[in-house]
Each structure stands twice: as structure tokens, then as C-alpha cells.
Amino acid sequence: xxxxxxxxxxxxxxxxxxxxxxxxxxxxxxxxxxxxxxxxxxxxxxxxxxxxxxxxxxxxxxxxxxxxxxxxxxxxxxxxxxxxxxxxxxxxxxxxxxxxxxxxxxxxxxxxxxxxxxxxxxxxxxxxxxxxxxxxxxxxxxxxxxxxxxxxxxxxxxxxxxxxxxxxxxxxxxxxxxxxxxxxxxxxxxxxxxxxxxxxxxxxxxxxxxxxxxxxxxxxxxxxxxxxxxxxxxxxxxxxxxxxxxxxxxxxxxxxxxxxxxxxxxxxxxxxxxxxxxxxxxxxxxxxxxxxxxxxxxxxxxxxxxxxxxxxxxxxxxxxxxxxxxxxxxxxxxxxxxxxxxxxxxxxxxxxxxxxxxxxxxxxxxxxxxxxxxxxxxxxxxxxxxxxxxxxxxxxxxxxxxxxxxxxxxxxxxxxxxxxxxxxxxxxxxxx
Length: 432
What we know:
This protein is an alpha/beta fold. It folds into 2 domains: 32-65 and 337-431, Aspartate Aminotransferase, domain 1 (Alpha-Beta Complex), CATH 3.90.1150.10; 69-334, Aspartate Aminotransferase, domain 2, CATH 3.40.640.10. It has 13 helices and 16 strands. A hairpin with a 4-residue loop joins strand 2 and strand 3. The radius of gyration is 22 Å and the shape is globular. The two termini are 37 Å apart.
């Protein structure tokens, strides 16, 4: 174990030179140096052990240091860590493609691998634009979406994030113009009414001739507000897109691989998208990999266009180490009754977080699958509240006015109770 002097040296250098996500270099938030991670626990350099309530931003669904995934990495590493995907292919990529096609909605049979979720979204947008260009309609080059969405931090992905309450408002004057409808207001368990679809239907009726697709996060709006909405909204939206000749893109980066209680959030609906993005939990949190899936018709149309090819090609596309790990992760998930496990977590989160509703500082508490959200009336002080969480032995990373948890699926009942109790206690203490 590194002594206090060694830890201080690491933190001092980090503070001076390392820029962490969404932080200031002149007034940085406190960071905590990690020594190791195993199962659902993160161990800091000073010996502190924390129950991970974030799955490392929703990705480490099997926890850490899992023997099955470790074996997949080691086995593939002995063969090759990487080869270019231009002109070459390999078994891990083909095997992963086959598995993804088996478990995703039936029309999605063509796969493009990408480096990250944001890039997968960029790929999806580019597919939509190239599709209409190939069909002789290059003016269909805008997108329609809903407010309170989040699709990533690369520039085109940012352009369809919420333009006002999102994290990228300062860039609005350099983004292409897209069209925003009101966010779905119908809760997941609410009775759907026709008025719930009125806003986006109006935006589509007005702008469909110059729009290529509708893009949104199905069922769960993630980093844009952790809001859950009715599957019927998407069922109706599919019919509207068909009527007005628009593609439908589902961004399942955060919702894929069981998080909402279905293997993919689209499983709560009766429909399928034309293009779908997956990532985050794809490799079980071991390394970065994402994929964009589409239909045979869209792939053929793009390939028969003026360019004759799809205009994208990341250097590390189809990385065999990542593909091998992703295939192992999916097989691991499917090897046990993951749905039952998610229901158990959902029940534990519901019971454990319900008392938070009694606090006058809490606006709402909501749970869906392995997602638990406490929405505060006011934004929280991330640095201060996180220190409280650390002292209680949990790792939670709030943002804005949201204190939320998305724990690894392997979490046991005792650790889940510790996690929710710490959240409840901290919220009450912070409100005093």
C-alpha cells in the first residue's frame, strides 16, 4: 500500500495536470485515488473500500475483476490485441456481430463497430443522412428529437442534446439546426394519452420534409435528467415516423443489456427502430466499444449511393480484444436469470429509497429496473455530498439535482441495503 506521502504526490500531480470530466482546472473537485476494484467494491489507495453504486457510469454490470471476463481478455491477448479492420476481419468481431443480431430487434441485421457511445451516435446520424442522400433527397439533413435528452459529447451528438438545460449550451451557435419537441411527460407507469405525443407530432408535421430521422433515448432519458416515460409514446412515435417518411433511431447506450428490466429498453415496446446504438455495458465495463445496428435496406441503400460506401472508419474499429470481451460479457449475462436479478434490485431500490420522499428537499423518487433516482428540489454540492458518501462507504456520483444509483447486477441484498441507506441518510443530513 502506498503511504500518505505517496498518495499526496499522486493527488498533487493529478490536480495540477490531469483534467477530469466536467471539472475545472482552477477549482477542481476532489478526486479519490483507486488501488483496485473487485466484485462490487472499489478500494482506494488509503485502504478505504466503497460499494460501487454507479457501475462505473453504468458499464460494469458484472462488477469488477470477473473471472469470466478476465479469461476472455487473457485468451485473446495471446492471439492479438488489435489488427486494423480495413481489409481484415476476425472471429471475435464476427462472433459478437452474430450474438448482437440474435438478441436485438429482428430488423437490425447490419452492424458497424465504433470506439465509444458518442461515436456510435455520430455513426447513426451519418447513416440517416447518407441513406436519404442515396435516395435522392439530400435536403433531408436535419434531425428531430426531444428535450432533456443526452447523446454524448462529440459535436454532432451534442447537437441533439437538450439545447437549454443540457451541458453543451455554450456551443449552440456552432451546432447545425435541429428540431426539438417537448420531452415526454407521461411517466413509465402512467396511462398514455394522445396529448402526450402532441408536441413531437407537431414538430414532425412541420419539419419532416427536411428531416432525416427522429433520435431519442427509449424509455429512459439518462444524463439529461434520469426520467422514465411510457412505452406507448414510442409505439405511437413509430407510426408517426412511418407516416411522414422518417427513420427512427434509438440510442440504447445507457439502457442496453438489461438495465431497465428488458434486455434492451425497446423491449418494453411493440416496435423496433431503424437504427440502434449500443455501448457502455457492451464489454461489461472492461474497455471502450460500441456498435450501431441498422437494417438490410438501409445498408443496401447507402451502399448503392453516389459514394458506394459508408463514409466512416475508426482506427480501432472492431478491436478484437474488446469484441472478445464483449461476447464473453453478453454470454455471461445470458447464462443466468438476469431478469430475476434486475427485479430483485428494483424491489430493493424501491424499498430503500422510498423514505427519501419524506424529505422536504426531495422532489421525486423513481425506480425502474436497476436504476434508482432521487430528484432533489435544488442542485446538490457534488464535492460535499460525495465526501459524505465516502464516509458511509459507498461510491455515488450525483449531477445537477439528481442523486442516482445504477449498481452492478451482482450486488447482494446486504450491500444494496447499505447503498440505499447511505443515500437516504446523506440526503437527510445534507438537507439540515
